[in-house]
Design goal:
The complex is a heterodimer of chains A (about 425) and B (about 350). Chain A has 19 helices and 8 strands. Chain B is mainly α and about 350 residues long. Chain B contains 13 helices and no strands. Classes of the chains: A alpha/beta (about 425), B mainly alpha (about 350). Chains A and B meet through α1, α3, α10, α18 and α19 of A and α2, α4 and α12 of B.
Chain lengths: ~425, ~350
């Protein structure tokens, strides 16, 4: 008999499939569909590599579907929950989607190679701490960090603060630059809870309590208070955070390339964009993450190529993942996309970036060496499955405090409630 | 029309009817079979069946699923994986320490979005009807280039809401055309979209600009249906223009005005796309409306709270049902009033 339970399953599948219908879904046997988003030329390089893979593996076809980042963030999870999806995807919600990943440890040729070169970041992709499966690999490491308009500093005759400078030092310096060069504001940060977490850790946020649960502590509150204060006194450009509602992401690099601020807090994935958009308009540099009383930290991150359980061709998926994770392919991908390698062997050897301009090469050096100064909390936070329970409400609530809808105390209290509500729902 | 063109026209009509007749005849055996099997009284179901199927699949089914989600919790998509939580989602949304202080509510942004929606609907609908009426009255007069002006006012209706919002965003952003004009005039730029008051003003302005043409058209049709002899009689009685407007035009335009009122109200409550692109609901939650809250809670946040979003959408649906009932009541009252007269 057709039960209510079966009925509801069928109904939900119908809805989920309607979401999924518009997106690339699992391919036929022998065919691999790869869902890819790109900040620069990541998918273009992968498409070229896929052609070479096809030539070396007759009978296997690889289709790289280039989609906007929003599709990866908003639609892929719904598609996967409905049992639909591509064979491989490039994702950034590493732990959040872990339950959909396919273990390809039985399909890869040399597990030792994977453990030796991706061992440090493999736990980010595993559904539990005890799991030993191979689900994919980080296509690149990223790190949050600031960019500075060097030309404006020179015009204002203000010296760049040194490598151990604090956020206050940078605020003072950029305000002088803004005043001398008549900028609308001194600084801007990407409208993102991920970006905010770096300075928060520097101001003493631990983010986790003794039991390992997420917590909004006094360090986090101090960071919010500082950040809101910098908006109120005109240091920060109001448009980036104050210009939107909800937790919508807004980057600050556009304001930087337009020369409207002297400094932005963004991340290493913007290097290609800066190279392309700024060109020779002005000199820019990446600088180490400014310090707070507790640390000088940014947040690590990155995107990962992951195999998905929806695949009908696990063998071919394993082979293709082996191919793009190989040292030769990985090296080519990293060099052409100007990224920081997550491949430990390549990181040790060092990489040449022939397509990179001098500022990009210098910035890659700054980000690469900055990995050593990342706080322990930053790695824990990045690997935590529900880190978005704090990142997204942070954007909403801090913005409310910035525009005067609430006080900092109220914003922190609301942020705490939102975080606990989201975690409670996520753990049901 | 010359005799030649008339006969050509007749030929074309005949040809068309023959082709159509041939097409219908192809289905005749099928209909005869269906009539035999179903009987004449039930034949209607065959004709409305395809439409009912589409309506059921894409309207009724989502409504049913929405109830399932509203009564379950967690972040899973598939209903069988979602624990039954009863009215918990509604309780979370409606929980407030003090209902006169939104900040004391657990989901204060939900309440802010409701207040914003009510404020927006109230102001926008009144202004929309007022401007549409004035425009329709002007366009109903014999003015120079009347056809052109009618086109001008209707043109924004043809644009996609996203296009409308992008155009205005470019005009209003801090380095936009409007601020460039202010700078050129020696004034200081204004934060049109980052100041809560201005942002709210522009959401109303842009939505009126975009949709006014549609409502103007409805009112214009109503104005043209008013018999001319009414105005001639008023003219002979030396009635003032104001008296003519209030005693002839507005009473006879009332059915159209009610349609415009209800359509504008429903559309205002559902406002989303233009505002989402124009202000993103900001600054803060100054222009966050109920549909945006539902979208963000269910889909934009990476911890998808489908249950909470479904509960909020049911609350919105309740509001829309109330509006529709008011419309029915008003329509009936209007019809009854006209019958009595």
């Amino acid at each position: 008999m057709f039960s209510i339970h079966q009925g509801s399953t069928l109904l939900a599948r119908a809805v989920a499939l309607s979401f999924a219908a518009a997106l690339p879904t699992a391919a036929l046997a022998g065919e691999i569909r790869v869902m890819c988003y790109q900040d620069g030329v990541e998918c273009d390089v992968t498409t070229e590599q896929a052609k070479r893979f096809e030539a070396a593996n007759p009978g296997t076809k690889v289709i790289v579907d280039v989609v906007p980042y929003k599709t990866i963030v908003e639609q892929l999870p719904v598609q996967l929950a409905a049992g639909q999806g591509p064979d491989i995807a490039r994702v950034t919600d590493l732990g959040g989607l872990a339950k959909y990943y396919l273990d390809i440890s039985g399909q890869v040729k040399d597990r030792g190679y994977w453990d030796a070169n991706f061992g440090a970041t493999q736990p980010w992709l595993r559904p539990s701490v005890t799991d030993k499966g191979i689900y994919g690999f980080m296509s690149q490491l990223t790190m949050t960090g600031p960019y500075v308009n060097k030309t404006l500093f020179e015009q204002a005759k203000v010296a760049l603060p040194g490598p151990k400078a604090t956020w206050e030092d940078w605020v003072d310096a950029t305000r002088k630059v803004a005043s001398a060069t008549q900028l609308p504001a001194a600084m801007a940060w990407d409208r993102s809870g991920h970006r905010f977490a770096g300075p928060a850790i520097s101001y003493g946020a631990k983010l986790f309590d003794a039991k390992g649960d997420l917590v909004i502590d006094s360090g986090y509150k101090t960071a919010i208070s500082k950040f809101v204060g910098w908006h109120k006194d005109g240091t920060m450009l109001k448009e980036v955070w104050g210009g939107s509602g909800g937790s919508t992401y807004a980057d600050s690099v556009g304001e930087f390339t337009n020369g409207r601020v002297a400094m932005v807090l963004s991340g290493s994935w913007q290097l290609n964009r800066l190279q392309k958009d700024v060109g020779t308009k002005f000199d820019w540099v990446a600088v180490p993450n400014p310090c707070g009383p507790a640390a000088c930290s940014g947040i690590p991150g990155g995107a990962a190529w992951v195999a998905l359980k929806t695949s009908k061709s696990p063998k071919e998926v394993g082979a293709f993942m082996d191919f793009i994770a190989s040292e030769a392919s990985y090296s080519e991908f990293t060099a052409r996309t100007n990224n920081i390698p997550a491949h430990q062997g390549l990181a040790k050897k060092g990489l040449q970036y022939p397509a990179a301009s001098a500022p990009v090469r210098a910035a890659l050096g700054v980000f690469g060496s900055g990995v050593a100064s990342l706080a322990t909390e930053a790695f824990m936070f990045q690997g935590y499955k529900f880190n978005r329970a704090i990142m997204l409400p942070t954007v909403t609530r801090v913005t409310q405090a910035i525009v005067g809808e609430s006080s900092v105390d109220d914003a922190v209290a609301k942020l705490n409630t939102d975080m606990l509500d989201a975690l409670k729902q996520a753990q049901k | 029309m010359t005799p030649t063109t008339q006969s050509e026209g007749n030929f074309a009509t005949q040809l068309l009817s023959r082709v159509a007749g041939f097409g219908f005849n192809l289905f005749e055996p099928l209909f005869r079979f269906a009539q035999k099997k179903l009987g004449v009284p039930n034949l209607g179901w065959l004709f409305v069946g395809p439409n009912l199927l589409v309506f059921g699949l894409f309207t009724f089914l989502p409504i049913l699923i929405n109830f399932v989600y509203a009564l379950t919790g967690g972040i899973q998509l598939m209903p069988q994986n979602r624990p039954f939580t009863g009215t918990e989602n509604f309780q979370i949304l409606l929980e407030c320490k003090n209902y006169f202080d939104i900040a004391s509510c657990r989901k204060d942004i939900f309440w802010r979005s409701i207040v914003n929606t009510i404020k927006f609907s109230g102001i926008q609908v009144v202004l929309m009807i007022l401007f549409s009426l004035i425009t329709a009255l002007v366009l109903n007069r014999k003015i120079i280039g009347r056809g052109f002006w009618r086109g001008v006012y209707f043109y924004p209706v043809l644009l996609s809401p996203v296009v409308v919002a992008l155009i205005w965003k470019w005009l209003l952003q801090s380095q936009g055309v409007l601020n460039a004009g202010l700078l050129a005039a020696g004034s200081t730029p204004i934060n049109w979209l980052t100041d809560a008051g201005w942002a709210f003003f522009w959401t109303i302005f842009v939505s009126i600009w975009a949709h006014m043409g549609f409502y103007t058209l409805i009112l214009l049709a109503g104005l043209q249906a008013i018999p001319k002899d009414m105005y001639e009689a008023a003219n002979m009685d030396a009635a003032s223009p104001w008296r003519t407007l209030t005693r002839i035009t507005l009473p006879l335009l009332m059915p159209n005005l009610i349609v415009v009122l209800v359509l504008a109200m429903i559309r205002a409550v559902q406002i989303f796309d233009e505002v989402f692109v124009l202000t993103g609901g900001g600054p803060g939650s100054a222009t966050t409306f109920i549909v945006q809250f539902i979208y963000q809670t269910g889909f934009a946040e990476q911890i998808h709270l489908y249950g909470l979003a479904a509960a909020a959408s049911l609350i919105l649906a309740t509001g829309l049902v109330c509006l529709t009932l008011i419309q029915l009541k008003l329509t009936k009252a209007d019809e009854a009033g006209r019958t009595v007269k």
